[in-house]
Amino acid sequence: MKISIITILIGALLTPMQSQGQSDLFNSIKKDNILDAELYFYASTLRMINIKRNPGFDELVNGIDKLKFFKVADLDRKEIRELANKFYTEEGYEEMVVIDGKEEVVHVMAREDDEYIALMADERGMIAVELIGNIGVHKIPELINTLNEGDLLDVFEVGREERLEHARESKDN
Amino acid sequence: MKKIGLIIITLLAGLGANAQEDAVSKYFSSYLDDENFTKVSVTSRMFSLFTDIETGDENEEEFLEAISKLKGLKVISGDSITGGMAKYRSALSTVKGKGYEELMSVRDGNDNFEFMIKEKDKIITELLMIAGADDSFHVMTLYGEIDLKKITSLASKMKIDALDHLRKLDGHKEDGN
């Protein structure tokens, strides 16, 4: 429960990015392994997933310029680790957080002051996240105490079937 | 001659410190591919996010001050395992003589906790917790500049139950700062 909330926070908030900061490796993962449509968020749209109107969450995301994520084909923990190592060696990212557990694997890394990538896998599948911007990290303790399961909209469930269809069509083309 | 002696002593001291860090690092590495254990690593890059932020809120300032001086966190955690107590005793044996000072031992039902610190110039530079029971085993090392009172308060806010035992230190030992 606690880990899930942290994962949601990392995933939803550690992904600010600008178009010029996009990672080539991240884009190649998207091209070869995407299972679901790519989702883009800005601070304004991120505030919309805060369906319980938690004020701490809004402050957390206000500095985010852009966040994008998509589901990719499942990798095992060793493959995820190898992929993370590629980001470190080929693109100059630095390791920030690694959680390697029975139920989930999370790798969060950063480059420059405002480029972040997260690779996250659990029983629901694997998600790749890219973020540009700044996160209101001072709000994390408050959110751990006040944010509950269901307080944030599960964006992957909204229009999922339509997006899957769109992704299939894009891949075929 | 005296200068050469000082250089040698400095080099040896550095090697000694590295050897201690390596002992703990190697211990963590040995669990890297063991899927029965959850491994967590937080680097200084993560903690650097918490520096130079002014919020104007007293509680948030306290949190930021405590966390911004940290350099790293590593955790190994295993529940529903076999041989938890043997691993606990082995871990205690591994760190013995590696420069840790015992801070507190707690026995809570079947759970055993050992808290140890390393100090340099009266500043706590590492907090090591080893916990074990028949069916569980946990190791956590937190390093950087550590203010025990602030870390205890932080652990409470972050709902890190294992560190709640540090509250027992109130009145027994002052923090290193």
Provide the descriptors you would attach to this structure in a database record.
heterodimer, A: 173 residues, alpha+beta, six-stranded antiparallel beta sheet, 7 helices, B: 177 residues, 6 strands, disordered N terminus, disordered C terminus
Descriptive overview:
The complex is a heterodimer of chains A (173) and B (177). Chain A has 173 residues and is α+β, with helices and mostly antiparallel strands. Chain A has seven helices and six strands, in the order H-H-E-H-H-E-H-E-E-E-E-H-H. Chain A has helices at 2-13, 24-33, 43-48, 55-61, 77-91, 140-146, 160-172; strands spanning 39-41, 64-72, 94-100, 104-111, 115-122, 125-133. Chain A has a six-stranded antiparallel β-sheet with strand order 1-2-6-5-4-3, with helices on both faces. In chain A, a hairpin with a 3-residue loop joins strand 4 (104-111) and strand 5 (115-122). The longest helix of chain A is centred in the middle third of the chain and has 15 residues, at 77-91. Chain A is globular. In chain A, 37% of the residues are buried. Chain B has 177 residues and is an alpha+beta fold. Chain B is built from five helices and six strands. Chain B has helices at residues 2-29, 44-47, 58-68, 84-95, 148-157; strands at 38-42, 70-79, 101-108, 111-120, 123-133, 136-146. A six-stranded antiparallel β-sheet of chain B has the order 1-2-6-5-4-3, with helices on both faces. In chain B, helix 3 (58-68) packs across helix 5 (148-157). Residues 1-20 and 172-177 of chain B have low confidence and may be disordered. Chain A binds chain B through residues 2, 77-78, 94-102, 108, 110, 135, 137-139, 141-142, 144-145, and chain B through 32-33, 35-36, 38-43, 45-46, 49-50, 53, 55, 57, 59-60, 63-64, 77, 154, 157-159.
